[in-house]
Structure formats: C-alpha cells, structure tokens
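Appendix B, record 7
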Amino acid sequence: MSQTVDRALSILPLLAEGPADLGQVADRLGVHKSTALRLLRTLHEHGFVYRQSDQRYRLGARLFALAQQAVENLDVREIAHPHLVALNEKCGHTVHLAVHEENEVLYIDKVESRYPVRMYSRIGKPVAITVAAVAKLLLADLPEPERRALAEKLDYPRYTSRSTHDATAFLAELATVREQGWATDLGGHEESINCVAAPVRGADGRLVAAMSVSAPNVVVSAEELLGLLPLVRRTADAISREYSGTAVPPSATDPAEEA
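Structure tokens (predicted):
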C-alpha cells in the first residue's frame, strides 16, 4: 500500500511540469502502463488530476482548491509562537512577530523580556512604520512601484535623531534591507531601544510576517544585540519551513556568525 501511495504522489510533481500522457507517466514511475492507468484513474476520481481531450493528464482543480484552503487556514502566529518562546528562552530579550495589513504593520505576538526593563509594545498595536525593523522588512518585500507609492505618502516623524527623515532615505534603506535580507532599528524610535529583525516567508518566497528581538541599551549594547542576528535568522527560517511546508534555504551566513 505504501508503494502505491508513493507512486501516486510521484505523479503530481510530474504533472506540475505540464500535461503528460499515459506513456510518459508510466516511464517516469518505472511501471507498466496498466499500473499507471490505475493510479491516474484513482487520482482523477478524487479530482487531483484531469484527463484532457488529447488524452493527456494535468493537475486537477481539486488539488488547487485544497492548497488554497490550506493556505487560508494557516495561522502564522500559532506556528511561530513556540519558536518565539524558544528564542526568548535563549536570549532573554523581547521577541515580536508582526504582519503587514492595509498599509499598517501590526504586532500579532509578543514574548516579554525576562529583564526588569520592559517595552511598551502591545499585540494589535501598529508599529512606527518608518523606523521599526519589522516594518522595513515587510515593506521592502513589496514590488517596487508599491514601495515607492507608499513611501511618498507616509509621514516621517522625528522620533529621535536617528529616525528616517524622508521618502528618499526610506526607499534607500528598504533597498538595502531587501538586498541583505534582515533589518535593524538602532535607536530610530527610542534612543535607548535597539532591534534586529528577520523575515518569515511562505512557500512562494514572499514575506508573510517578520520577527524581531529588541532590547534596551541598559541591558545590552547595539553591538551585542547584532551578535544575535544569526540566531534570529535561524529562528525565522525554522518558522518559514514549518509555515510553508517546504525546505526553505537557510539564511546566508552572517559575518557576525563567522567572527
């Protein structure tokens, strides 16, 4: 039975490459045409493959419907939370998870620092979109025309002397974030708070969320916090793999990891 299931499942990636006839399916599986036909008929009955008028087979609509339903029912917060807790246990600092919704970036999960100094961020609260590390990651993933249009209509509050001051500077920073694959907020929102963030990606490679570690200067310096970047990126990669159900390539080795 397990061999039959394995063979049937092996047909799906073949048809993902394009329509194939019975002979092509049999050759790819290394089985007789009669065996391939039985498998195809079973998949056809369940809507996973469709037989075209030219007698070739392609993926069926049922497969796409199930995939869409699965994606819609995925809860990135539920998947990410155990990883956020584990990261918090390792480093002790505040850990956030954020998403981009309707031109706002919102915190959807938070694990508090174990140190006495706490952050005032709250789940459901929008972040400071022009300076927050998670916001930079999520906005950097937008197509270039969308990034530019959004940047042009944002306000740029001067929270601190390190705050991003205009659309030109913001777009340049987003380009850097997009290229390097991670982001920071080093005193841009609050002089005493630093943050490093990494992306959580879906199966298509696009960002579905961003996670971060934040800490005040009185607990760790900015340099010490940046030293946690490899750990933060590995955590984000683990969430991405679980969320997408695919083997997401690990982040490139960070220079701090090699030091």
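Remarks on this record: The radius of gyration is 23 Å. The first strand starts at residue 49 and ends at 51.
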